[in-house]
Amino acid sequence: MPGRTFEVQIVNSKENHVQDYLAAAVDTAMHIHLQESAGDVLIFLTGQAEIDKVIMQPCSLSYSVHRSE
Known about the structure:
The chain has helices at 21-35, 48-68. The protein has a domain at 21-68. It is an all-alpha fold and 69 residues long. The longest helix has 21 residues, at 48-68.
């Protein structure tokens, strides 16, 4: 199948995040966004409820960061 390929860097945590893996995913994505070069971040989640929960977490973080400035 014709198409383009893109270089992918896989980042895995060495810590155990069983208790709150959604928060760990958001923390990791924010770290990548703030510390690494420009690019996209892809996080695999299991369903719509998790997606909705994760979408709200960066909004809360962004709001608290902007309020403290």
